[in-house]
């Protein structure tokens, strides 16, 4: 499946979804409407074990929403915009496949907000992060008030959104917004290699880890335990559980279904 504003490709079971709307990857209606289709195409592709969000442009990850769109938007238009965005957030949170991000250059607004729902975020050392929505009297709307509070803690999240200023990749690492910083030339190779490592692991186990933590962390502890309990009972009945045990005892590499 091909798109006008997004590039989708697969390499060694790692599916790359790259924003590709020159010159700066500003999100407009057409790009926004392509995002659910692009994500779903990778989720439904049996050859894809891991999904990576990235940018096809040299200097920009994304500059967020196209303000030419917002200059003309009314409340009903914003309702539609937000509905699509929040549906995307729910899709990402429910994904059974690991989600990674490879972030370089300028990373602002909606484009980078989306990848705050990924499992691991890798940033090039030249990346700059910003959420300047306060300067146009609006709130970041891709589940960001919720994701940043969970990633950074309440006070750091509030300070970041209050300020509306850029921070460096190193600062983003220090406060917990990204998980690893690498040199720009090594970003794609680093993320691809990590993605291939995950792709070599059993998919049901990865899905169970992702979903028990994503769902359970927002619940009381005992409720989270119930989710863990049920997923373990499901896994122990799987062919891959039996294969993993056999491979370990026979001292060989497992052959996952």
Q: Strand sequence of the main sheet, in spatial order?
A: 1-2-3-5-7-10
Output the CATH class name of the largest domain: Alpha Beta
Order of helices and strands: EEHEEHHEEHEEHHEHEHHHH
Sheet/helix structural class: alpha/beta
Say how many strands there are.
Answer: 10
Portion in helices = 40-55%
CATH topology tier name of the largest domain? 2-enoyl-CoA Hydratase, Chain A, domain 1
What would you say the CATH architecture of the largest domain is?
A: Alpha-Beta Complex
Largest sheet: 6 strands, mixed
So how many helices? 11
Overall 3D geometry? globular
Task: Indicate how many domains the architecture comprises.
Answer: 2
Notes on the structure:
It is a single chain. Helix 1 (29-43) packs parallel to helix 3 and helix 5 (144-152) packs across helix 6. The chain is of the alpha/beta class and 257 residues long. Helix 1 (29-43) links the parallel strand 2 and strand 3. The chain has a 6-stranded mixed beta sheet with strand order 1-2-3-5-7-10, with helices on both faces. A 4-stranded mixed beta sheet has the order 4-6-8-9. Helix content is 49%, strand content 16%. The protein has 2 domains: 6-199, 2-enoyl-CoA Hydratase, Chain A, domain 1 (Alpha-Beta Complex), CATH 3.90.226.10; 203-250. It contains 11 helices and 10 strands.
């Amino acid at each position: 499946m091909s798109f006008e504003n997004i590039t989708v490709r697969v390499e060694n079971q790692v599916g790359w979804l790259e924003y590709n709307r020159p010159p700066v990857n500003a999100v407009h209606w057409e790009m926004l409407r392509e995002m659910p289709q692009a994500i779903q195409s990778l989720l439904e592709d049996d050859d894809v074990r891991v999904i990576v969000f990235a940018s096809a442009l040299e200097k920009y990850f994304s500059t967020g929403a196209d303000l030419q769109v917002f200059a003309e938007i009314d409340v009903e238009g914003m309702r539609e915009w937000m509905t699509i965005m929040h549906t995307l957030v729910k899709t990402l949170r429910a994904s059974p496949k690991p989600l990674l991000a490879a972030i370089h250059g300028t990373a602002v607004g909606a484009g980078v907000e989306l990848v705050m729902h990924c499992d691991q975020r890798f940033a090039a050392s030249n990346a700059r992060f910003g959420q300047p929505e306060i300067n146009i009297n609006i709130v970041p709307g891709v589940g960001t008030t919720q994701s940043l509070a969970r990633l950074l803690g309440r006070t750091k999240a509030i300070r970041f959104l209050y300020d509306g200023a850029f921070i460096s990749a190193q600062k983003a690492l220090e406060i917990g917004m990204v998980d690893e910083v690498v040199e720009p030339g090594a970003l794609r190779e680093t993320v691809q290699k990590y993605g291939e490592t995950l792709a070599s692991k059993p998919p049901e186990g990865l899905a169970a880890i992702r979903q028990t933590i994503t769902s359970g962390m927002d619940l009381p502890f005992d409720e989270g335990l119930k989710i863990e309990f049920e997923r373990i009972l499901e896994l122990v009945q799987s062919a891959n559980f039996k294969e993993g045990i056999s491979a370990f005892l026979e001292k060989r590499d497992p052959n996952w279904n």
